[in-house]
Design goal:
Layout: E1 15-16, E2 25-26, E3 35-38, E4 43-47, E5 64-66, E6 70-71, E7 89-97, E8 106-111, E9 117-122, E10 125-130, E11 137-140, E12 149-157, E13 184-185, E14 189-194, E15 197-199, H1 204-207, E16 212-220, E17 225-236, E18 242-251, E19 257-262, E20 266-268, E21 273-282, E22 296-304, E23 307-316, E24 321-324, E25 327-330, E26 333-334, E27 337-343, H2 357-369, E28 374-378, H3 384-393, E29 396-400, H4 410-427, E30 433-437, H5 445-458, E31 465-467, E32 496-499, H6 527-542, E33 555-558, H7 588-596, E34 608-610, E35 621-628, E36 632-637, E37 640-644, E38 646-648, E39 652-659, E40 664-670, E41 676-682, E42 689-695, E43 701-702, E44 708-716, E45 729-735, E46 738-742, E47 793-795, E48 800-807, E49 814-819, E50 826-830, E51 832-833, E52 853-854, E53 870-873, E54 877-880, E55 899-900, E56 909-927, E57 936-941, E58 944-950, E59 958-974, E60 1011-1020
Helix pairs in contact: 2-3, 4-5, 6-7
Length: 1024
């Protein structure tokens, strides 16, 4: 394809063909003796634990033939509660024959991951044991190989209670709350063949080696220059010494070599392992950025007497980061975090985590399309496939190692440090990773120091912050932030680790559309309500974004992106709080985020979206909601104005009781400078036909036994418009070399009716306190349904659904037919192709080599990402009516400290004195018990009342705005008692002080106690 020049890169969508290469594999551009093979095809699998299955003479001919990755219980994905997924022992076996030139060479196995514990044998000899279930590991199998055919046998145990053999300890992250248990070889397997002098692999587990490390520093972003460093670990397993130097070649996305430089030669003795390194300043660089997955191929070669002995390709990108002043900067530009806290499994119905790379790109690119710039993978390290996918689509990542919901000690803590070390080494060349996460809850300073030391040892130059959830007062963590609440900082960046937790199935559009789902905000919303809640919750962070003062919020990530087969809160046996469903079909919240998140900080790119549809019955009256970043929005029905909407939560515009009429509903927004944006929706006609739309990889549908094709099925009217009120049952027929994997929908394939919600839930669901890290008890009505998983009969929801087809291994086209009563049928033929053929069980075909980098958003813009909207004033002195020695805690930039008055009404005041008269117009307060307490307050400036009333209950800061006034002494006085009353319903994750991150309400009694955690004083931008 034509490569897009730099002058044309700012297109709405751009793809670049990458040179085929995967990280730390044998180079595809510099010939050497090294070879890397894909071992995924041609395995046999069986469940059970037969004796002798590791031996070469064991008869496995009746076992199922599979292509990896493949979990033995994948068919249960989304059909069952996470706790009910099958566990047990499963065996995999594969035969392969080495190339004729492989004698007297090193052979290294690489497993990207197995769930949970795996023992590996080669020709009956045990070569590796991996038990953590979360990370890659390797094995040197050189001594176990024999001439001719060889056998790999793998025994996997995915017991939830698996205990480490050496210590008897379980693993904190092997948890039936969040870490969905698809058992088996669930990630890719490779074989690396090298000469006896070679560059190692980044596999700390099993091999104890670190591989390559590529980074850049001394950036000049405007001049597009930086110094590129390359370091590689070299091992000499030969019998003689070798004098070696490392040569580095850098190639851009077109494959054009843009640099070559050599390091100094060194003598490497037999049995010695050493680092070789070199660096050079490069110009004309394209810096990796959000939505701009520009990656280079960096080849490190070992040179001896001018001859190339060993060459490795690493695909990486170069970018500059900064974490300071409460903000994150990428390539010199401030970026507020807005994205998703996504389950690391990132799974799909009926296939679980066994997906090809293009499906990872399909899903992760949707996060970017919705305006997401960060994905925070939750609890355990993401797969290498997802890490590399985020590189390609330009999606920042927060990478955990492994944990649950608390700090830990002893062997369990050691397991966490070991996993963090292995994960950092394995993923330190991936530019999309900006954050290393030490825990899903706060950890001790001593533990933070341990993790930071690991980062400093193995990734000291990668420009990545290390921290943990919470850590608000940590002196060591480089970032932090709570689970739900709004935090601000003038020091390390604080961003919310997960917020907006309500659930909503895609089927339930509103209370006026079948099946007429009224809004039930306690984890069971409809689409209209869920989208509006997404707006309200994001605005809490946006209104304290960079540019709004000295202390700011660095953003937050919405939990979750796609519906997940993990713990749940609503009706179903899976979590439905995604902005897309499990098949990645957008919900209304997806479009709401796309409007709000279109920019780096200030939302200035004109965008507007009408929530919902416009196909109703005569006589319907509906409240219309529009999401827009415009200053005002006017609504039109068939060209007639319905007036301007009432604005709330910064982006939400509302019209009450709009009378429906068929036709076109349009929203036209006016933006600053006279710009406009609009969105329109139309009334659809009666359902007339089905339509099928395929989605395949860049190569098409590849018959490798692992590839997937997605097919959308829509109900359309006579004009081809999707009918949003259609929920018709569709019957599918599949022909050709593919397997049916189907889709997902509300209900059960047996046809039995849903249990009445008024019926008491079984004791296993309701009425019992949840265990530690367990699923919160909540009465659901659909937790025993199979959600139509694998069923050939699947209803559309809101006029659309999507199904999965898995490739076979034979030639021939795939034909899919969809039928539904009363509708014109649809048939789709999908051409197929075969992969590059394997030889002796060793495949040279890597699906990821055919994926394209995406340059959707273009390079990092040079102009500032925000406009300063107000000025923060710092008081010189603080005086309080009581507990005066603690008064400075109210402005100390530590949200775990507070000042509280003594309970006497006469002393419930605090006074802030400035060193000169200042202009103030807004006070922000984080008040003790902010979620449950409303404080009656009076604000006076030099004795004049500037604000009086009751503060709002909220999830962080209350804002008290008033007409600009000048003065030198601001007093805040409590004028009445306070009481506790939760304003946020059943936020069950926050059911006690510990889970809530401690708002202070548990420690400070209500009544006449004025309690301030933090206070910020603002005036208009540029004021004194």
């Amino acid at each position: 394809m034509r490569v897009i020049g730099l002058s044309a890169i700012a297109l709405s969508m751009a793809l670049v063909a990458q040179a085929p290469v995967a990280a730390h594999d044998a180079s595809s551009v510099v010939p050497s003796a090294r070879r890397t093979y894909n071992l995924n095809p041609g395995w046999r699998m069986m469940t059970g634990d037969p004796s002798g299955a590791e031996r070469g003479d064991f008869n496995d001919r009746r076992w199922e033939t599979v292509t990896l990755p493949n979990a033995f219980n994948e068919k249960e994905a989304f059909a069952r509660d996470i706790k009910d997924l099958s566990t047990g022992i499963v065996w995999y076996r594969k035969r392969f024959t080495l190339p004729k030139d492989a004698s007297q060479r090193k052979a290294l196995l690489e497993f990207e991951g197995v769930r949970q514990a795996a023992e590996i044998w080669v020709n009956g000899r045990s070569v590796a044991l991996s038990e953590n279930g979360a990370m890659a590991f390797g094995a040197d199998i050189t001594a176990a190989l024999v001439p001719g055919e060889n056998l790999i046998a793998v025994r996997v145990d995915n017991d939830w209670k698996y205990k480490e053999r050496s210590s008897g300890s379980g693993f904190q992250w092997n948890n039936d709350n969040f870490n969905v248990n698809y058992g088996g070889i669930t990630k890719n397997v490779r074989l690396h063949l090298t000469d006896m002098v070679y560059q190692t692999l980044p596999l700390q587990a099993g091999l104890g080696t670190t591989g390559q490390y590529i980074w850049a520093d001394d950036f000049d972003i405007a001049a597009r220059t930086a110094t590129v460093h390359a370091e590689t670990q070299v091992r000499n397993d030969d019998r003689v010494a070798h004098r070696l130097a490392v040569r580095v070649e850098v190639r851009d996305v077109t494959g054009r070599r843009v640099a070559r430089f050599d390091g100094e030669a060194a003598d490497i003795q037999p049995g010695e392992t050493r680092l070789l390194a070199t660096a050079q300043r490069l110009s004309g660089l394209n810096f990796w950025s959000w939505g701009y997955g520009y990656l280079y191929t960096v080849t490190t070669s070992l040179i001896e007497k001018g001859k190339v002995l060993d060459s490795v390709d690493t695909r990486t990108g170069f970018r500059q980061t900064r974490f300071a002043d409460g903000m994150v900067a990428l390539n010199g530009r401030t970026i507020q975090m807005h994205g998703y806290a996504q389950r690391t499994s990132n799974e799909w119905p009926a296939v679980g985590v066994s997906i090809p790379p293009w499906i990872s790109d399909f899903s992760n690119a949707l996060m970017v399309e919705s305006g997401g710039n960060l994905v925070r993978w939750m609890h355990i390290t993401p797969s290498k496939q997802d890490v590399e996918s985020a590189d390609r689509v330009g999606l920042l990542q927060a990478m955990p190692a492994g944990d649950a919901e608390s700090d830990t000690s002893g062997r369990r803590w050691e397991q966490r440090t070991e996993l963090m070390r292995a994960a950092i080494i394995y993923n330190r060349n991936n530019p999309s990773i900006l954050f290393y996460e030490g825990g899903n809850e706060n950890i001790s300073e001593a533990h933070m120091a341990e993790l930071k030391a690991i980062r400093d040892q193995f990734d000291p130059h990668g420009g990545r912050a290390i921290g943990s959830r919470e850590m608000l007062d940590s002196k060591l963590a480089e970032y932090g932030g709570e689970m739900l609440y709004i935090n601000k900082s003038a020091g390390k960046p604080l961003w919310s680790m997960e917020y907006s937790r309500d659930e909503a199935a895609r089927l339930y559009q509103d209370a006026l559309t079948l099946p007429f789902h009224k809004d039930a905000p306690d984890y069971n919303r409809n689409q209209d309500s869920h989208a509006a809640e997404d707006v309200r919750r994001w605005y809490d962070y946006y209104r304290v974004r960079p540019g709004t003062g000295r202390r700011v919020s660095s953003g937050g990530v919405n939990i979750i992106f796609s519906d997940s087969n993990t713990h749940f809160r609503g009706d179903n046996n899976y979590r439905r709080s995604g902005e897309v469903d499990a098949m990645r079909l957008p919900k209304e919240g997806f479009w709401a985020h796309k409007v709000m998140w279109s920019d780096w900080v200030d939302s200035v790119t004109p965008a507007t979206h009408i929530i919902g549809h416009w196909t109703y019955a005569p006589g319907t009256r509906k409240a219309v909601q529009v999401v827009s970043n415009g200053q005002s929005v006017e609504l039109f029905l068939n060209g007639k104005s319905l007036g301007k909407g009432e604005k709330s939560s910064g982006f939400l515009f509302n019209w009450k009781n709009v009378a429906w009429a068929p036709g076109t509903l349009s929203a036209v927004a006016t933006h600053e400078g006279g710009k406009r944006s609009d969105h329109r929706i139309e009334t659809a006609g009666p359902p007339a036909a089905l339509r099928l739309i395929p989605h395949t990889s860049p190569r098409g549908f590849v018959m490798d036994g692992a590839d997937l094709a997605l097919v959308d099925v829509e109900v359309v009217d006579a004009a081809g418009r999707r009918v949003p009120t259609a929920n018709a049952m569709v019957h599918f027929t599949l022909e050709g070399p593919a397997q049916w994997r189907g889709g997902i929908a509300q209900g059960d394939s047996s046809g039995r009716s849903r249990r009445d919600a008024s019926v008491a839930a079984p004791a296993s669901i309701a009425g019992k306190a949840p265990p530690v890290d367990g699923v919160t008890a909540y009465a659901g009505t659909a937790r025993d349904e199979d959600n139509y998983i694998l069923s050939p009969n699947l209803p559309v929801e809101g006029g659309i659904n999507r199904v999965l087809l898995r490739a076979g291994t034979a030639k021939g086209n795939v034909r899919l037919t969809a039928r539904s009563d009363g509708l014109k049928a649809a048939t789709l033929t999908i051409p197929t192709r075969l992969p590059q053929s394997a030889s002796g069980g060793l495949s040279p075909d890597f699906p990821e080599d055919h994926q394209q980098g995406q340059l959707v958003r273009g390079p990092t813009p040079s102009e500032p990402s925000f406009t300063v909207s107000r000025t923060t004033m710092i008081p010189r002195q603080i005086v309080a009516g009581s507990n005066g020695t603690d008064a400075t805690r109210s402005t100390d930039d530590n949200e775990l400290s507070r000042w509280v008055s003594d309970g006497n009404p006469a002393s419930a005041w605090i006074e802030y004195r400035f060193d000169r008269p200042v202009t103030l117009s807004e006070i922000e307060l984080k008040l003790v018990g902010w979620r449950s307490r409303s404080y009656p307050l009076r604000l006076t400036l030099d004795g004049r009342t500037v604000w009086e009333g009751e503060t709002e209950r909220q999830l962080g800061y209350t804002m008290l705005g008033f007409a600009p006034a000048k003065g030198q002494v601001l007093r805040i006085t409590q004028t009445g008692t306070v009481e506790d009353r939760d304003a946020f319903g059943k936020i069950v994750e926050l059911n006690n002080a510990r889970a809530a991150g401690d708002t202070g309400a548990d420690a400070v009694a209500p009544g006449w106690r004025l309690g301030i955690v933090e206070a910020d004083f603002h005036g208009p931008a540029g004021s004194d």
